[in-house]
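Hi there,

I know you've been waiting on this one. I reran it after we fixed the sequence typo, so this is the corrected version. Both the input and the resulting structure follow.
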Amino acid sequence: MSFVADLYRSSPNAGMAEFQEKLRLQHENSMHTELEKLLTTAKTPEAEQISRKDFEGFKKLFHRFLQEKGPSVDWAKIQRPPEDSIQPYEKIKLKGLPADVASSLNKLAVVKLNGGLGTSMGCKGPKSLISVRNENTFLDLTVQQIEHLNKSYNADVPLVLMNSFNTDEDTKKILQKYSHHRVKIHTFNQSRYPRINKESLLPVATNMSLKGENEEAWYPPGHGDIYASFYNSGLLDKLIAEGKEYIFVSNIDNLGATVDLHILNHLVSQASGKRCEFVMEVTDKTRADVKGGTLTQYDGKLRLLEIAQVPKAHVDEFKSVTKFKIFNTNNLWISLPAIKRLHEKNAMDMEIIVNPKTLDGGLNVIQLETAVGSAMKSFENALGINVPRSRFLPVKTTSDLLLVMSNLYSMDAGSLTMSPKREFPSTPHVKLGSSFTKVRDYLKRFESIPDMLELDHLTVSGDVTFGKQVALKGTVIIIANHGDRIDIPAGAMLENKIVSGNLRILDH
């Protein structure tokens, strides 16, 4: 944090408090002036109006950023959530399903968070357009899933995509191909906020353009922005007018996040006075999930606790699987009328995530973000549901991609399920080295995806390629030393093997 920002967070005595308040007002006024200047460079009156709404949200966040001091939680007040506040999925399932599933489905809209780019996997454009299975993209699979629901139950569940300025144009181009599918598709845009110079606490943008010197000056402010941008787009009111009561929100790269009829039935079958306005799907932690947000009881409310909010002295305790056994999958079920009520009352309470970045030219900036799940404490009768691990299948890396492309999963109507041929329901641990990071390089290194039905653990490092119809079982570790290359030959079966050094097998 900069010296200026630190001043706000130091302990106030009377004189210091007065100085801090003056400084805060000065920064807010300077920020307001700069934002107004930026708005004068908008290309059209419509663009100016949209950006003005975005900036209103940004100014609220900036105001809070200047006022808040220290970590956002008092560790001593954190308690384990009460037993009944996190229900096991099996208990929800016991209720069974109503005869008329369609009437429940007709109260639902599916929202996918579609603001991210595929850059971390070496791809240009929206991440949702990466092929993940039989040439199907994340978006294709989502459309297939919802279309299957609509056809099977003669229902009308729409798909809503929350795009960002990074993904909107490319996504809209591709949506034309779904025009004959039985799914209504709506889009709305996440806000566009200005990155702030860490020292001056002023925007780095010189005008409203997204190109040239201003290409790095803007950012989409995290998925907590869904509430304001959904409301501002007019889509929230439109869906309520159409009789929709809940949205099911998830990341578009989580292939396990399909509409669950039992959770939906649990929500719509409750008495209106005790309606649960917010469900967070959580699942049991493994060693791979120690950094995931968890649920706690705080000031009498169920609350999401993220690692960024934890005081340094307690990070190890936060990561402990014994104290905090579950983590947030970011599959959320949220009441539409509740979003409307809370937004209009300005009562959506979300912690600020201060995300420091360094731009290409070396300039240090901060971006202020929020997370969608952190608003949980603002909703009435919020509930955690401990779901099977299969509902959390995110594809963040090519290691994840290898799993979902393999015979570990079978696909039906856009949904992936673990193959019944696998004896253990747990997913193997796969770690592919840096030669596999980009999707393009990864695809070149596999002539076909190996048989992984009996795999427990795979580590691959260095220049390694796989021939056709390779089978991997148990624990397999393949390490090519620097300058060496290992080619795993077609038809090879590796079971509990460590392969290292230089193993180049040539056909002759």
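Quick highlight: The radius of gyration is 25 Å.

Best,
R. S.
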